[in-house]
Amino acid sequence: MYDAPFSEKNVTSNAVKIAADGVQVYYGDTHAIKDVSVNINDKMVTAFIGPSGCGKSTFLRCLNRMNDTIDICRVEGDIRIDGEDIYDKRVDPVQLRAKVGMVFQKPNPFPKSIYDNVAYGPRIHGLARNKAELDEIVEKSLRRGAIWDEVKDRLHAPGTGLSGGQQQRLCIARAVATEPEVLLMDEPCSALDPIATSQVEELIDELRRDYSVVIVTHSMQQAARVSQKTAFFHLGNLVEFDDTDKIFTNPQDPRTESYITGRIG
Amino acid sequence: MTDATATPTPTKSLTTSDAHMKKRNAAEKRFKAYGIAAIGAGLFFLVVLLASILTNGLTAFQQTFIEVPVYLDPAKLDKKGNRDPEEMAKVSTFGYAPLLQDGIFAQVEQKGIETPLAKSKDMKALISASAAAQVRDRVLANPDLVGQTVNVRFLASSRVDGYLKDRVTRESVARDKNIDAEHLDLVDALRAEGMVEKRFNWDFITGADASESRPEQAGIGVSMIGSFFMMLVVLFLALPIGVAASIYLEEFAPQNRFTDLIEVNISNLAAVPSIVFGILGLAVFIQFMHLPQSAPIVGGLVLTLMTLPTIIISTRASLKSVPPSIRDAALGLGASKTQSVFHHVLPLAMPGILTGTIIGLAQALGETAPLLLIGMVGYIATNVPDGIAAGFLDPNSAMPAQIYEWAKRADPAYYERAWGGIIILLLFLFAMNAIAIILRRRFERRW
Predict the structure, then answer these.
(1) Which CDD domains is this protein grouped with (chain A) (predicted)?
(2) Which of A179, B272, B293, B320 could form a disulfide with B375 if both were Cys (CB 3.0 to 4.6 A apart)?
(3) Inside any domain, residue B31
(4) What residue in A sits closest to B253 (Cα-Cα)?
């Protein structure tokens, strides 16, 4: 029924990377996320699916505190990464975001050169001691972003001059350059054509070896192809969270079944 | 089979238009015509404005000069004969004026020009009152000239200048006590001999204002320096304060009643008449803080207050136009708020900020009303400020104030200078706008 997955769906790690417990999010008076508890494993791809406006992106943005930038947004509950409460007063969101990288829906390279795009994170975090080390980080990141071969001859061309799919892979390379432990992806393929999408999906599967990846997607096929765990959100509730196989073949909740068979959404 | 190839007749042909369609098309054409008419009217007024400014003002850049050999008589200039500059300084300009008159009269006699003006003294009406001072300065700088006959080029009186520029006619001199028709005949004769001619007048651009009775000597240079120092004050206060305020309001400030109030007030301040800022400057900077009157620093402070809202509004608009995805990208990589603003948002907003600043400066450069109240209008700036501190603190005028001052003086010769001043002011504004365009092109980036 769904496309074959790239890799075996066996669970390679059971270590919990992110533990969310009783998370509530309010936008002013709107209750956007209602009591969501979920455990996200290390070295695994977790997909968030659900109809538009169900809160999956909002929840994703809680995991690196990007919601802090919205004045009216209020987060309650407990989110721990490696056992540390990320909403603790002592936590600097800037440090958190270096550890939890993010890739956005629309490719958003800086209007600078490809090299500077990737080097920006390492530069501000002081990851390289000299130019040679920085060059090395840039090359390694672009290779991980599966875009090195396409851009190695024009590292000083503007990143905005690339095609949409290349830009998105550049953004992924930029995100991994800061050596995060978790990679959040907010509908990374929704602005891309099918070929670019499959390239990015392959890349996500690669990244699973080193990172814990959380991906928000509108495409159920994509969730089925790339993820090992899937969470289904509906109207701000986490309806069901289980192994991807199980969600798509044997959903427990009638709402999940309605959604994946196309009756709601 | 035959049905498939038959062309169906259209119920409504596409090649003919019905009444409704015609009406719509007519409305469209009419609207286009209105637009073209509006632009045409605007261009027409612009052409009229420029033409009248140029025809009235360009003559100010030329001035009539008289060039004759003058015998610098030692009996009058250096009675003791020791060429001591201190002794010679005792001889005032009254001692020099007859020498110039003699110089012209000698030429009149030598060339055999027939004129009823039989005395050397009658030449006085041809010579600018500033000429004697000009020759005196030259002699005091070089005392050895005394006793020689030197060729001197000096300003003709404003009546002679007006005659050469068709401002003074034989009809108008009938009612003029300063000059007679005989003088005009003599000017014609001297002109034929090449001793009276119009030349480009650098002193109009670089010189200082003059008293009401010597329009031929007046220049806009010193008030240009006043404007320059005011613009320095505006640039170095309004730009950093305005940009810092906008960045805080746009990127950091929480959205609440207090910031809303500030925002509304900034917008209102941009619409406050400039004279209100003038009276504020008078009350605060001069009466309360006791800063010097008529000083460019006070003018600069007042214009800073006036320009700030413009700069804040344009800076905020250009910060707002930077796509939020750029901020997200930077924050998502672990950049702090400040880093995201200074590394990414500000460079992208730069063209807009610079354009807004230069437009604000240009506005301030042409502003006259607030200067009225702090005493920069009506002050006759006759001296170039001595050094940078004096440039800020000594009384001075500004270009628009100088133009206003000239326009209200009685002598029609000043009218021409007012238009000439406008041309210079407009050149500055054009230059600043050109810089704004160049900077925008230079910094503009696509994303």
Answers:
(1) ABC_PstB_phosphate_transporter
(2) B293
(3) no
(4) A71
If one counts the domains in chain B, the total is 2
In order along its 265 residues, chain A shows pLDDT tens digits of 455 455 444 445 568 889 999 999 998 888 988 999 999 998 899 999 988 888 888 999 999 998 888 878 889 989 999 988 999 889 888 889 989 999 998 899 999 999 999 999 999 998 888 999 999 999 999 988 888 989 999 999 999 889 888 999 999 999 999 989 999 999 888 888 888 888 889 889 888 888 899 999 988 889 999 999 999 999 889 999 999 999 999 899 999 988 888 876 5
- Rounded CA-CA distance B257/B267 in Å is 15
Q: Are residues B190 and B226 in the same domain?
A: no
What is the token pair recorded at B212? Answer: 């009401």
Looking at the structure, tell me whether residues B373 and B237 fall in a common domain. yes
Coil, strand or helix at B316:
helix
Report the complex ipTM: 0.86
Residues 330-349 of B with CB under 8 A from A: 330-336, 339, 343-344, 348
Residues B333 and B372 in one domain: yes
Residues 6+ apart with CB under 8 A from B171: none
* Domain assignment of residue B88, given as a range: 64-200
Q: Classify residue B22: in a domain, yes or no.
A: no
Q: Do A94 and B333 touch (CB under 8 A)?
A: no
Report the DSSP pairing between strands A212-216 and A45-49.
Answer: parallel
Owner of token pair 């080390």? A133
Model confidence, pTM: 0.81
Chain A residues in contact with chain B using a Cβ-Cβ cutoff of 8 Å? 64, 66, 69, 71-72, 94-99, 101-104, 106, 108-111, 120-121, 124-125, 160, 171, 174-175, 178
3-state secondary structure of A189: coil
Q: Does domain A41-261 have CATH number 3.40.50.300?
A: yes
Structure tokens at A263: 């009756």
Boundary-marking domain end, from B200, B235, B268? B200
List of chain A residues whose C-beta atoms are within 8 Å of the C-beta of residue B336: 94
Tokens of A224: 């089925």
